[in-house]
Amino acid sequence: MAVLAEHPKGAEYLSKFKAEDMARYCRGALDRCFVGSAPTLNDLCEAYGENICVVWLSGLIYDLNNFVGQRQQTPQQSDALAWMLLDEAKQYKLTEVMYFFYRYKMGLQGEFYGGVNSHKVLSDLKKFKEVQGEHLCRIYKQQEEEQRELERIQTKRNKMSYDTYLWYTAWSAIYGDEKALDALEAAHVACMAREKWGV
User: Fold this and answer.
1) Are 78 and 18 in contact (CB under 8 A)?
2) Same domain membership, residue 111 and residue 22
3) Residue 71 in contact with residue 116, Cβ under 8 Å?
4) Structural domain boundaries, residue 169
5) Positive or negative torsion for Cα 161, 164, 170, 173
6) 151: in domain
7) C-alpha to C-alpha distances, 131 to 19, 41, 126, 138, nearest whole angstrom
8) Residue-wise DSSP of 43-96
9) pLDDT (tens digit, 9 = 90+) per residue, 83-123?
10) HSE-CB for 119 with a 13 A CA cutoff
11) What total number of domains does the chain contain?
């Protein structure tokens, strides 16, 4: 990935994806977590090696442990979980992994009893594939609808005479594209009625 080539030090690049920045990535512009330009864990492993990914994942686990506020995992348990997460989550973008952890903080993936449970985290990661699929489906559907609407507007624009185009341009500058197209369509229907029935 080109963006990783610009950052020869992995730790420097990963400082953009710290656990304390999780809310910034996951609130508001959630779509960006799934279709943004963040690299995948696999991209990171290829660029900087697996150890740096494990250190990053361990930081997210440590942050979640602190958030839960109960019995802490030992460093060995956190490292073991980080390695297993890396094996299971290489296809996810860094921002998607952050959203996975953020869902625990929001209470969307159940509760931990007595501290962060490695089995629960790994089990929830498998279910997260469905969450990712739902978000991607919604995003792509929305993009397709926007593209169809854009094509509809473009088709209407291409059918205009020069005089109509000038009229449309003036209206769209004042009222916006959609209202100008609606007005243009209403005017076209009125013209057709006049021609057909002499109204």
Assistant:
1) no
2) yes
3) no
4) 160-199
5) negative
6) no
7) 21, 18, 10, 11
8) HHHHHH-HHHHHHHHHHHHHHHHHHHTSSPPPHHHHHHHHHHHHHHHTTSBHHH
9) 999 999 999 999 999 999 888 888 887 777 666 778 888 88
10) 1
11) 2
**Which has the closest alpha carbon to 35: 95, 99, 105?**
95
| Phi, psi dihedral angles at 114 (to 5 degrees) | 85, 10
155 lies in some domain? no
182 and 84 share a domain?
no
Confidence band, pLDDT 50/70/90 cuts, at residue 65: confident
| First-residue to last-residue Cα distance in the chain | 64
**Helices and strands (H, E) in the chain, number of each type:** 11, 0
d(CA 121, CA 93): 17
Do residues 62 and 99 share a domain?
yes
Distance CA(167)–CA(184), nearest Å, equals 9
Any bridge partners for residue 147, and if so which?
Answer: none
Amino acid of residue 118: S
CA dihedral sign, ordered 90, 91, 97, 103: negative
Q: Are 86 and 106 in contact (CB under 8 A)?
A: no
Q: 152 lies in a domain?
A: no
Q: Model pTM?
A: 0.67
Residue 153 lies in a domain: no
Identify whether the C-beta of residue 185 lies closer than 8 Å to the C-beta of residue 160. no
Give 161-177 pLDDT, tens digit per residue: 666 666 666 667 666 66
